[in-house]
Amino acid sequence: MPKRVLLGLLLACGLTASALAQEPKTGGVINAVIQPEPPGLMLAMIQNGPTQMVSGNIFEGLLRYGPKLEPQPELAESWSVSEDAKTYTFRLRKGVTWHDGKPFTSADVLFSVEMLKQTHARARNNLGQVDKVEAPDDTTVVFTLKQPFGPFLGIFEVGSMPMVPKHLYEGTDWKTNPYNNAPVGTGPFMFKEWQKGSFIRLVRNPNYYEKGKPHLDEIYWQIIPDAAARSVAFETGKVDVLPGGSVENFDVPRLSKLKDTCVTGAGWEFFSPLAWLWLNNRQGPLADKRVRQAILYAIDRDFAKDVIWNGLGKVATGPSASTIRFYTDDVPKYPYDPAKAKALLKEAGYKGEKIRLLPLAYGETWQRWGEAVKQNLQDVGMNIETIATDVAGGNQKIGDWDYDIAFTYLYQYGDPALGVGRNYVSSAIAKGQVFNNVEGYSNPEIDKLFADGAVATPDAKRKEIYEKAQKILVEDVPVAWMLELQFPTITHCKVKNLITTAIGVNDGFKDAWLDK
Amino acid sequence: MLSFIAQRVLKGVIVLLAIVVLNFVLIRLAPGDPAVVMAGEAGASDQVFVKQLREKFGLDKPLPEQLFIYVKGIVTLDLGFSFRQQAPVSKLILERLPATLLLTLTAFAISLTLGILFGTCAARFAGTWLDTAVTIFALIFYAMPLFWVALMGILLFSVTVDWLPSFGYETVGGNYTGFARVIDVAKHLIMPAMTLGLFFMATYTRMTRASMLEVKRLDFVKTARAKGLSDAVIQRRHVLRNALLPVVTLAGVHSGTLIGGAVITETVFAWPGIGRLMYDALLQRDYNLLLGVFVICSAMVLIFNLITDLVYRLVDPRIEFAS
């Protein structure tokens, strides 16, 4: 008996000590890498990755999303959905102020919605189903939709719908508004200084509405353009955080083994980057489904994952990443099978016509991947010519449909209606633009399924629709899905609680603290 | 002399305008559309958005009209507006120009001083082990790619012995002022300036050595010796001074190459200059910013060349300024 008591006491002490050890500490400065240098920090007007990463600390959305994409309160403390799934009511937090001390109210939400419709392409698309937005009082906002829109609760994170201060932007020329260079948000950190080409400095918001947060005093986002130099900066302790994609993939295993280094793949669940090969369905051999299927059989995707991506990521099974809603792996499978690829090519009557392959000019890893795919396809008798371009040149070629096979990777934004359908429906075929249906795949059944899936209720119905769409697409192989990419975030282990939501470092460092 | 300078400045302005027109056309010949790049970065590329961007930046206008607007701007010293950074190009360049001038001028000074010094030593002791050593080192630095020298420098001086910072212009968050800041910036400057300067130093060393050996054989040097002048005086006043002319010519020509080299050096060492600004602008097809940097770089090359011509006169008084 005494032994049990002792054990219990020890356990209790241990647990208490452990809990104490995890108690966040206040203060300290984090140095993080930002690459490339963002063109600006006004998130409502500039939506590229680096801008989101820095400005996710300054601005906020109505909601955040947990690792399983479940909505969590941010500027909205609660929300409700009407029975007909057409009315969404958000209750805003009370006592929230902008960094200049003015109160944040429902009027700011209304203004932000109107502004974003003009300045934020993704928000404009997402808000396409909204009939009207009303603010019955200072802390309530009501969105009324034209029809039910399944992913609606998934469009409110800070990058998709940042809140903008009405009192600073209303009636001004948004493009030249001075606050674009000194942004004012409601977030846990305030903009302090930007030395172009060197660093961006954010400081703690002392009036942040969540008491005790943020824990850090300052964040320095350091601008280091060369990938090798970024690795050295981490190794020499000059920076503490390397967000995903900051260093070349072949450097990740080496850095991961360094003393006091922690690595996580979390924080990409919302974006779910999926890499694939655009296959130009319009012309030449690739117009034949059997040739496209042969390409999937011919490519050793496990090799790409294990060798080129150092074991990071997951072989894709179809158009949806396994981390987004309504994913199914119950689809036709394409294991690495060169013999089957050869047979399919023969059956399709492929006679060695030249096929142009555009690798992605995003650095060494992508170049190596291009070489591996070329070799795989040549092994089954395809005549592949690699076309070298930079990113802008490659995008133009893809947008002009002047390619046969081209590498890409795109974000999926948590829901097939937001980030999958755009690449397969006929209405998204538009010359001159990239990242839509540039492969030219057209299937009325798929068009209908994606149209129905976006507005269907309840979720079980949506699940059924999207699972069917995935099966059809995987059978047709409009593009060749390669890998669900993983961009690990590398930190010194003294950095705690950095990633807590599905958008990772893009969601700001309000929960992060330093174990000094 | 003043009329010479005025004439050169006038010619320079004409050359500059020709460069502007040529660059404008060349950039637009390259594939890649800034609106598509920006739409891609925004994670959306619907037709409305791309059209909106093209209209916003005047990219929907016919090319001759765009050229006319741009040249008109240049004449009134307006370098235009950066598509991507949403700021006036002149502001963006002016923010970065001091860092590039500091880097390139330091590299230039290091390369010229050390190059002439080593070249003189090699020529003075031609055929000895010192000459061989200098020649071999010059050859090595001449042959090594800039980015490799930079990375090896970082590995040795930052990672292994931790003497010098590996990136940046000054210590972030250091908040140094006065002399402490000068020292801090100097520490950050050593590696990029040496990296950039080494190649040119090697060139000047070889050029000085070869030129001095050639001059040494000339009759007037024999005469000087016959007059009984000391070797040091002969080397300094007669040999070196005459041997410097080709080195000065080369240094003038190198001014453009130096700025080109700054692109790589600034990228590897995260030095916040216009070299990197140019590199990013090229990748983003930020036409106005790229053209603006080209204009400034071209102007700098023209100024360097003018200075070279003036230095000629100082080195060799026999050269007259053509009116």
Automatic annotation (TrEMBL), chain A:
Annotated compartments: Periplasm
Keyword Signal: yes
Keywords of the record: Signal
Annotated ranges, domain Solute-binding protein family: 70-422
Keyword Ubl conjugation recorded: no
GO CC annotations on file: ATP-binding cassette (ABC) transporter complex; outer membrane-bounded periplasmic space
CDD domains: PBP2_NikA_DppA_OppA_like_13
Signal peptide: 1-21
A GO MF label: peptide transmembrane transporter activity
Pfam (any one): SBP_bac_5
GO biological process, one term: peptide transport
Similarity comment text for this entry: Belongs to the bacterial solute-binding protein 5 family.
Protein name: Peptide ABC transporter substrate-binding protein
From TrEMBL, chain B:
Matches recorded under InterPro entries: BPD_transp_1_N, MetI-like, MetI-like_sf
Gene Ontology cellular component list: plasma membrane
Residue ranges of every copy of the ABC transmembrane type-1 domain listed in the record: 97-312
Highest taxon of the lineage: Bacteria
Cellular localisation: Cell membrane
UniProt topology in membrane: Multi-pass membrane protein
GO biological process, one term: transmembrane transport
PANTHER family membership: ABC TRANSPORTER PERMEASE PROTEIN, DIPEPTIDE TRANSPORT SYSTEM PERMEASE PROTEIN DPPB-RELATED
Family: Belongs to the binding-protein-dependent transport system permease family.
Record-given protein name: ABC transporter permease
Organism: Bradyrhizobium neotropicale
